[in-house]
Input
Amino acid sequence: MKKLRELAEWVGGTVAGDGEIEVHGVAAIEEAKAGEITFIANPKYLSKLALTQASAVIVSPEVTSSEKPLLCVKNPYLAFAKILALFSHKPYQPKGVDPKAHVSPTAQLGKDLTLYPFVYVGDHCSIGDRVTLYPGVVVGEGSSIGEDSILHANVSIYPGMIIGKRVILHSGLVVGSDGFGYAKEGRRNLKIPQVGKVEIEDDVEIGSNTSIDRGALGNTIIRKGVKIDNLVQVAHNVVIGEDSIIVAQVGISGSTKIGSNVTLAGQVGVAGHLQIGDNVMVGAQSGVGQDLSPNQAYSGSPTIPHRDWLRMVMTLPKVPEMRKTLMEIEKRLTKIEETIPLEKKEK
Output
């Protein structure tokens, strides 16, 4: 339970109305009840402010009047996230190593662990303090996992992988599978041994059923703070820069280098051996086939600057009518040419 003024202090906002009102939870604006706080991040939903049953509402500073107490902050969505984290946080309580977990006698185990039944930890692994491994997690020989990391059910870590601190890996994730590397010998596909590693730095979160391939020689690297959605393919020797966001069903081909604070929206496909600069945003379903300069937005397949793509998309519905008009103009020109005397045409 927190008072509204305490929440305002927590997120760096101000209170309009009764700051002593008590809040015990967070809910969406339609479902919120008395004692809960909700938020409005988009001005088009301000009409719902008078209808919600929430005891308080997080809004932008432009909203100054309401029958309900307001928590005014520059970024309501960010404030909502921080308050939700505050209310949902549960202190970590280690459960120890379950007898049905298999842990190699050569593995180095930290303090206050939670290893559920049917976890497998291979030889010479290093598991940091307060790590949680859910049922079915496999940690291959020689891998390391940093403190406070959480690996959900059926995560597979191949031998020799490096997982940082406070990393969250969701169910079905595969880290360190072989890169898709083959050389042609006539018609035969000869497998190229993949002997590199995957290195996942601190504070990374990766969604379910994503695959991250090990490097062919060097490492595939996911820098700190990166967030990767479900069903993403990261190929061998890819480097993803700090704080980048990779949305669902993205495919990144081998040896591509992605800068920091990059956003690849859903179903973006990236060809191999490319450079994507810092602070780039690539729109959904785009195909990246060339290097992208930093600090720009791109869309389309092949990708072009986002504004150019918008103009092109706005033109596309008009193409049939434009074609019809051009055909009519062509017919009219043909008729005009037919009326010109032959001697004038020859001149």
User: Anything to note?
Assistant: The mean pLDDT is 94.
